[in-house]
Design goal:
The structure is a homodimer. Chain A has 13 helices and 14 strands. In chain A, the strands form four sheets. Chain A has a seven-stranded parallel β-sheet, with helices on both faces.
């Protein structure tokens, strides 16, 4: 079995590559829920949904979130009542949130509901939230004030400086059932090219997960989400800088050194391999930019080769 | 000011007639929330919405619920996950539920949220839920077992025998702010032709409301929802029988005698006027079947004439 720590788009694309080269049922994704949020009374799990929609083949590649060919009847009607519509909820996407929220209200844990949703989409891989307990990424802005992650990420379009990030509830949280066993049994654990400080870090902050990976770091391979100093998507580059790291593969290596023995860096960063090694992480150079399913599959093959 | 105790369709139609003959701002509707329900994590208030959509001119006259010209994208997508889709939620209707649920989750009372929703629809009349506290109509089936009202009404299509009805939470509930003052100050209180045992009774069960009306019953006028022994819509006739009343204007008079001094009965029931009077209720004969807005306005004019 291959286990993948995944945030949103980077995790979803890597998983889409992986299921082309290993049987999907042998893939486990442990997904960040630190950016889950409550909107209009509904429980929204953005990263779980991005992974789900991508593996189901219904994701919207243009946006990196939501469902392709989505309709917007509900949002249009909601604008009658409120201008709090910065988090766009498509009609079909809303059905997922309604089902999840109803099941959670009925007492089902998020991991169970996630299994039901992925089964409904015909997904053979196993998706687990990092925890069934609420962990919420909170962002302290440099200008003052703390906001929930989606307010920073979507409403403020991550265009503001950040002073610190914390994962509220993480200390008291427990890994979802199956997470520790899956991560322990996997022949390879991959840390997807997701934002190390706001997508991977919350997963590692759930007690037990970071420790387990640290103990087997020689068979944990991370893929850098930073290529040539910049994030392919999202604010990973500026967040790394704002939180005191270098926005480079060396900075990523330093952040993940405790849990990953190997970092796959892009060919554009081949010259920084020595810096990664100096951070105590083995550097592997590959084409990491998954511009197509074929390239994602090629990257997945490379990861398997590194592990074996 | 004219106050109206309203359930769903009968209340909505009467209100639509009333606002044609008195300034809408001088109309207060106190609306049943005993059939409110939680669906997919959302708070749904069927009677408040039926009244709102009717007064806003967007209701679906064919169904008696929901919005005309509605689309069903979310429900179609929800069917991927569950067959619990017997309560149909249209896309535009869902926007109302989302807004309400989000505001309630943020701590706003239902009366405040209702004011916001009706303002967004440009409604000048005041709509108040009977209570901001949860009161839930529960239906004990003759075959055994107790179900929530919507399960009886929608899922079972009210095609099953009922042993008893109770209003869970009513004893501890308080009238919503403005309800008692509005009912006390109104020159006329109308009890709409709504189901007396499951639409009007829960309103009267909120402590203080029934007592207030009893004290001023001479200026409380009810309109019979039973015409020629049958309900115009819904299960009022069979519910009256199953709960030990006569399914006639006389049965309605007996149920409402404590709070209404006058009952308006349809011309079809003119022969039963004596029976109504024997129940201690003054009988007025009128054309009560609101087949058009014009007939609803005519009925409203007649109610005002009765009161003055």
């Amino acid at each position: 079995m291959i286990a993948v720590l995944a945030g949103g788009v980077g995790g979803a694309r890597l998983l889409a590559g992986l299921v082309q080269v290993v049987p999907p049922a042998e893939v486990l994704a442990v997904v960040n829920t630190g950016d889950d949020t409550e909107l209009h009374g509904l429980h929204v799990s953005p990263d779980l949904d991005t992974v789900t929609y991508t593996l189901a083949g219904v994701s919207n590649p243009a946006t990196g979130w939501g469902i392709a060919g989505e309709s917007w009847s509900v949002m249009a009607a909601l604008e009658r009542f409120t201008d709090q519509t910065w988090f766009r909820l498509g009609d079909r996407d809303l059905a997922t949130h309604l089902y999840r929220s109803g099941r959670l209200a009925a007492g089902a844990p998020l991991s169970q509901v996630t299994a039901e949703i992925t089964a409904a989409f015909g997904i053979e891989s196993r998706l687990l939230p990092m925890s069934d307990d609420p962990v919420r990424t909170r962002v302290e802005l440099a200008a003052g004030g703390e906001v929930e992650f989606q307010e920073y990420f979507v409403k403020l379009a991550h265009a503001v400086a950040v002073r610190s990030v914390r994962f509220a509830g993480a200390e008291a949280s427990r890994p979802a059932p199956g997470v520790l066993a899956g991560l322990a049994e996997a022949e390879l654990v991959v840390i997807a090219p997701s934002n190390p400080v706001v997508s991977v870090a919350p997963i590692l902050a759930v007690p037990g997960i970071g420790q387990l990976l640290a103990a087997r770091r020689d068979s944990v391979v991370a893929v850098s989400p930073i290529v040539a100093g910049a994030a392919l998507k999202g604010p990973a580059d500026r967040l790394l800088r704002e939180l005191g790291h270098e926005s480079s593969v060396v900075g990523v290596a330093e952040v993940l050194a405790g849990v990953a023995g190997t970092l796959v860096i892009d060919e554009a960063d081949a010259g920084l391999a020595d810096g990664v090694e100096r951070a105590g992480v083995h550097a592997v150079v590959a084409d990491t930019v998954m511009r197509s399913d074929e390239l994602a599959a090629a990257l997945a093959r490379r990861l398997l080769a590194v592990a074996r």
